[in-house]
Amino acid sequence: MSMKRKVEVFSAGCPTFTDVVSLVQGLACPSCEVDVLDMRDVAVAKQAKALGVRSVPAVAINGQLAGCCAGRGIDEASLRAAGLGQP
């Protein structure tokens, strides 16, 4: 018997995330339980922060942020390099 996999898709609840949700659901096997979670819910946002989610959409599998979703997000150095804060 195969082990169940818990797959969580963190989104902001807008229509642009439907492609990601469709991809995850299309790749999911019968032993995958896919939940789409809305970051506008405070409890979901806290859970996402604890997992290290820095931008959405993001996917966690069995409580671990997927490698494709790690290390992204806004950082000060990149914003300054793009010209933010400069006249």
Automatic annotation (TrEMBL):
<protein>
    <submittedName>
        <fullName>Thioredoxin domain-containing protein</fullName>
    </submittedName>
</protein>
<dbReference type="InterPro" id="IPR012336">
    <property type="entry name" value="Thioredoxin-like_fold"/>
</dbReference>
<dbReference type="InterPro" id="IPR036249">
    <property type="entry name" value="Thioredoxin-like_sf"/>
</dbReference>
<dbReference type="Pfam" id="PF13192">
    <property type="entry name" value="Thioredoxin_3"/>
</dbReference>
<feature type="domain" description="Thioredoxin-like fold">
    <location>
        <begin position="6"/>
        <end position="66"/>
    </location>
</feature>
